[in-house]
Amino acid sequence: MSGNSFGKLFTVTSFGESHGAALGCIIDGCPPGIELSEADMQADLDRRKPGTSRYTTQRREADEVRILSGVFEGKTTGTPIGLVIENTDQRSKDYSKIKEQFRPAHADYTYMHKYGVRDYRGGGRSSARETAMRVAAGAVARKFLQQRLGIQIRGYLSELGPIRAEKLDWDQVHQNPFFCPDVDKVPEMEAYMDALRKEGDSIGARINVVADNVPPGLGEPVFDRLDADLAHALMSINAVKGVEIGAGFGAITQKGTEHRDEMTPEGFLSNQAGGVLGGISSGQPLLASIALKPTSSLRLPGRGIDVHGNPVEVITTGRHDPCVGIRATPIAEAMMAIVLMDHYLRHRAQNGDVVVSTPVIGQL
Amino acid sequence: MSGNSFGKLFTVTSFGESHGAALGCIIDGCPPGIELSEADMQADLDRRKPGTSRYTTQRREADEVRILSGVFEGKTTGTPIGLVIENTDQRSKDYSKIKEQFRPAHADYTYMHKYGVRDYRGGGRSSARETAMRVAAGAVARKFLQQRLGIQIRGYLSELGPIRAEKLDWDQVHQNPFFCPDVDKVPEMEAYMDALRKEGDSIGARINVVADNVPPGLGEPVFDRLDADLAHALMSINAVKGVEIGAGFGAITQKGTEHRDEMTPEGFLSNQAGGVLGGISSGQPLLASIALKPTSSLRLPGRGIDVHGNPVEVITTGRHDPCVGIRATPIAEAMMAIVLMDHYLRHRAQNGDVVVSTPVIGQL
Amino acid sequence: MSGNSFGKLFTVTSFGESHGAALGCIIDGCPPGIELSEADMQADLDRRKPGTSRYTTQRREADEVRILSGVFEGKTTGTPIGLVIENTDQRSKDYSKIKEQFRPAHADYTYMHKYGVRDYRGGGRSSARETAMRVAAGAVARKFLQQRLGIQIRGYLSELGPIRAEKLDWDQVHQNPFFCPDVDKVPEMEAYMDALRKEGDSIGARINVVADNVPPGLGEPVFDRLDADLAHALMSINAVKGVEIGAGFGAITQKGTEHRDEMTPEGFLSNQAGGVLGGISSGQPLLASIALKPTSSLRLPGRGIDVHGNPVEVITTGRHDPCVGIRATPIAEAMMAIVLMDHYLRHRAQNGDVVVSTPVIGQL
Amino acid sequence: MSGNSFGKLFTVTSFGESHGAALGCIIDGCPPGIELSEADMQADLDRRKPGTSRYTTQRREADEVRILSGVFEGKTTGTPIGLVIENTDQRSKDYSKIKEQFRPAHADYTYMHKYGVRDYRGGGRSSARETAMRVAAGAVARKFLQQRLGIQIRGYLSELGPIRAEKLDWDQVHQNPFFCPDVDKVPEMEAYMDALRKEGDSIGARINVVADNVPPGLGEPVFDRLDADLAHALMSINAVKGVEIGAGFGAITQKGTEHRDEMTPEGFLSNQAGGVLGGISSGQPLLASIALKPTSSLRLPGRGIDVHGNPVEVITTGRHDPCVGIRATPIAEAMMAIVLMDHYLRHRAQNGDVVVSTPVIGQL
Where along this sequence does the record place binding of FMN (chains A, B, C, D) (predicted)? Predict the structure, then answer.
């Protein structure tokens, strides 16, 4: 209820601060009998991990996850899965300055108003470091969805500031440090980021996430539509400022004849809806896209105030990502996996595993 | 859990189908001692009501709400508030055709896959008729927020297909059938809609919603951020395909120095964040914007399939809104009100009504 | 969250005051495809209904339930089921006295402290009149459990004050006004109740509830054990002061060799556990027993205080049950049905409808 | 949703198996600004700890709790509190026998039916070892309740098999290994337990728990009454078979004039209700009593079956408590603390910290 849980039936509850002892989470509701080991999570964690290229923060964290419960003889038992990642790179540092001031566009100011106290070391709970647990938990969901339902969830960076990917070549996504599916744009992105780093500034980005082979019928109208829960999940990722499903904001200028996805016995003729009709999956690929803001932690000075209300000039010298969007791809995939997993279980609760006689039409 | 409730502490649970006996909802968690009567809700319901201009559906519904419980001697008692609206204009009609076919881009197909049965009359539960209860419940939240905290929630249509409002004059919003804040664009919108109706097509729209005087401190990191819950709430409205907070998708091409809202003792110098930092309200106006798709219920024929998987040509001859975005403004306001109300109660639960010594800086 | 919902996946949310316009509830999560009509609920409502014998309150309520949504062409659709019962016998009465005073052992005093206001007419929300909706919702659960799983839920009055039923003859339970399974004790109970009514006093009772054919595997350790949720459900019924599962308080003086239910391939050799092991159903009959206190609404004067803190002598002259336990049997059955239904759906969510190879042993 | 969380606003989610790597929990919703260290929890943990006398299991566990998050500079921050206790005494042992058989009256059989797999080492998740985290979390609630509201929660063993405490001397409770408040009965209990251990059998017990200084107004009618949530909490403790509030099962034979607690300006004249009226605290002491069954893990042989359905003779040679009730006192106190804490936050959410003008009458 205080916001640290996600999912109603596949429930992830997380804890941990940027510079605390450890991060952790509990996954409750995972079906029993799934083969699971730390290695299943580590691959995704490594994709999110800081310090893997010169375009991300140089903080060094092994992000080694440890399973504390819920897995026995290599399989989930249906009991809660406790996960923990120890924080290792908590540089000792003088925090006396940051303790007294509110950095512009940071959560310092709002946490203080909310709680009256705050852990100011590295942003505390408001740090994106928390998303490591999302990735770990998402890996569990992803594995189940892949093995039992054949669902595949993949993401990529489609825009880095002014540079747009124009091709979608899935094989390229993990061949470059940007998760960019268009190999031709990679050199441009590299040059852009190098210039940006010299400048001391940061930039926004867009991430697209796609789930293929989603069965029709997932989603709970009217409030917990699949797309609404997905919007919730994706907007809860640090730095996200916008979420689109299918045509998204493009739908504003579309006419009905253009937007509506016609159906034939062979399949849908388009996917403007992004795989969701009336809040329920249609069997088409689930398409979501998110906007991530540029980080506000800059060495370029900005105006802030201190805890007494006095003006201060703020310079942030820590190790920060100049484009937080770059590392967001595995996080967005993880959140989509958690949402789909949760809705699969919710669907199964009410409707069972019944085979519906309605024809499932193909996917284009 | 089956999706018909919204809000954790100010909880709205609704029921009702388009052509069923009645719509209703239960509001649980409303604080006691609030003056409340049907009239408080009726004003908002009337703004959403169909048939008020030639640009909306001609279905006639009085949408008269009745309070069945939770109010005594004109005040809320803290017990659940039961509300009901009887459906009056359920035209008797031959549904044999629609019963057998899946209209393109409708929930017919997905409801059938999910449940194996469906109420096909007028879309049943998937009809936007359901949103009447959101508006009624939202009016209760809105009243509390206004009276106790001075929060004001207002929305407007900022784009109707290709036509954009370029001025924001709040006084104009209720002077035209489009909720358009730019009086100069109204004739253009009228002409556009008249042409569209002749054509038989429909169009998308954009709605903006703003809450002023939101106190800092509302929102529950990390998953139930104020903006994440707002995204959930707004994306759950029929036809919504995208949600933005503050700069939204514009943040993709912004640099950090441009996006970060600097603070001075007199106030924030900008509001790119849209009133939320780290998922918690900052005291700035809360800014959200949504994209609504064009309705798919058209008299222009479209390709669909029937329940046996055969191709059919679908023509929808019912009374439908050519731009569902037009009536969406009070619905979006209602959902923002419910989210803020819920987060106010959640905040109060954990943090009490404590006065934080941190200076609250002004709003620009 | 404010206490008016029960069940996580089969969720009943109710509203309504004793002397308000109507009572109602929303059932969310009911599986689709179940045949359902008002008649299915009316039979159970009639068993709970006041005024059916001289041993219960003489308030006259038809308790006619109306289905407002969620059922189409005689079957549930999976969408929320809205139910309403209009209050008809709200005798106009002078409430000025009760308005100012707190009756001993009533909720008047605590509601006032909690909410600062209260609907004092007939107890308002604290009246047992609210339980009518539990019975209606329970009837839906009961029907599903019976039809799909063969589960049968039955209750009876086992003690009325000092008089204990010594035989359990299910055929007798509905042949007398006490739900007593021992026909030989009925005359004694009649005489006792007649004397009590003359006296102006009231008496406590014990109700037993049994579910047969519960499949093994229902219940969610560690906090939402089947028995813990059942204790919650039963203790939430007005006037209940104690709950036992299986041996109950008798287990205090039992030795392990006496309490543990041994198993053979043919079945369990006893049922001290009451059908639950480790919080999960074992396949044995589920056995619960509850204690109901005597009503405190008496015409015999009692000491109370008024809203100003002054002492008052309280005499309650309304129409009250001298033994509220008598009408509690269908309510307790309904709550057990809701708990089992909820746990069946919860089980199915996590575990599916898998057939476990473990041998299910017989029931003795 | 899978049963490993308790509390709606003060939420404890736990994980861990008897012989797994560690136990842990996350407390979400704890108010900020509370002084908290491991020492606050350790005192209660030590009271529950095994091996402190010859009357409990000889398993040796330090039960040292470690705070991983949510506390900064000695105070809670309002963010989730992660706790972990490493398991240290997991004797290596041959589990091949227990792996194949279902012990009578254990959760082996039901876990297997529910999940299809189970961690058979020491009972896995069904072991009472899990309650260590309840005690740790309860200590946090207890500290808040004590400091902010002056609430004091204490428990004691009132019956050990046939031996009843006849005096309530709080000073004695922690002076003997049984938590017995009647010093005169301690030698009798010692002799009884010594005989029992020789015999190889086990015995049931009764625990009483009392909360003093509970303010009036806590509890959420109608389903989440304070007593109903308490029944849920207490019945969820391993081995509990019955719960009573106030007069409990004694109310069956009480008359209304005897049961109803009369009120005078100086206070209530009795406390048959056990501190709850209409599901809401009255300001009187909150009184609960629970029955605990004898453990079924005995070295005396019992009949069970194996996983193939064949009959087996089961002898349990592990280190087990001959009376699990003895160590249950701190667990029951912890659960009462969590329930009260949760209801305090729930009350504050809806009703704020308002001072009600209604006179609060004294406690007798």
Answer: 125-127, 238-239, 278, 293-297, 319
Banded pLDDT at A88 (limits 50, 70, 90): confident
Q: Are B274 and B288 in contact (CB under 8 A)?
A: yes
At residue C283, φ and ψ (nearest 5 deg) are 100, -15
In angstroms, what separates the C-alpha of C234 from chain D's closest C-alpha? 8
Helix H or strand E segment including A306 = strand A302-306
| Paired tokens of C340 | 């089992």
pLDDT at B102 over 50: yes
The angle, 0 to 180 degrees and rounded to 10, between the axes of the packed helices D131-144 and D329-351 is: 50
Ordered domains of chain D (ranges, CATH): 5-351 (3.60.150.10)
Helical residues (DSSP H) of B23-95, grouped into ranges: 38-48
Model pLDDT, residue C91: 63
Task: Confirm whether residue C346 is marked as ligand binding.
Answer: no
Residue D280 has pLDDT above 90, yes or no: yes
Taking a C-beta distance cutoff of 8 angstroms, is the pair C62, C323 a contact?
no
Which of C159, C241, C252 lies closest to D291 in CB terms? C252
Residue from D15, D36, D66 to probe the interface with A (highest A Cβ count within 10 Å): D15
CA B126 and chain centroid, separation? 15
Taking the alpha carbons at both ends of chain A, their separation in whole angstroms is: 41
Cβ D303–C263 below 8 Å, yes or no?
A: yes
Q: Which of B126, B225, B260 to mutate to test the interface with A (most CBs of A within 10 A)?
A: B260
> pTM for the complete prediction?
0.97
Band of residue C88 on the pLDDT scale cut at 50, 70, 90 = confident
Q: How far apart are CA A233 and CA A252, in angstroms?
A: 23
Q: How many residues does chain B have?
A: 364
The nearest CA of chain C is from the CA of A279 a distance in Å of 13
Please report which confidence band the pLDDT of residue A364 belongs to, taking 50, 70 and 90 as the band edges: very low
pLDDT, position A100? 87
| pLDDT mean across residues, chain C | 93
Q: Considering chain D, what is the average pLDDT of its residues?
A: 93
Count of positions (residues) in chain D: 364
Q: What are phi and psi of A84, to 5 degrees?
A: -145, 145
Q: What's residue B56's pLDDT?
A: 79
DSSP characters for C56-114? S--------EEE-SSEETTEE-SS-EEEEEE---------HHHHHEE-TTSTHHHHHHH
Which of A46, A288, A245 is closest to A154 using CA atoms?
A: A288
Calpha distance A295→A325 (Å, rounded): 9
This model of the complex carries an ipTM of 0.96
Chain D CB contacts of B352 under 8 Å are 31, 348, 353
Beta bridge partners of D85: D23, D65
**Nearest-CB residue to A349 (from C1, C79, C345):** C345
> How many B/D residue pairs have CB atoms within 8 Å?
42
Under DSSP, the state recorded for B334 is H
Q: In this structure, are residues D289 and D244 in contact, taking their beta carbons and an 8 Å threshold? A: yes
Contact call for A349 and C346, based on CB within 8 A: yes
Contact across the interface for A1 and D24, Cβ inside 8 Å:
no
- Inter-chain residue contact D16 with A68, CB threshold 8 Å: yes
Vertex A29 angle, CA A25 and A32, to 5°: 110
Chain C residue numbers touching A346 (CB-CB < 8 A): 349
Are A348 and C346 in contact (CB < 8 Å)? no
Q: CB contact, 8 Å: C278 with chain A? A: no
Are the C-beta atoms of residues D165 and D150 closer than 8 Å to each other? no
* Residues contacting B181, CB < 8 A, separation 6+: B156, B157, B158, B165, B167, B168, B169, B170, B172, B173
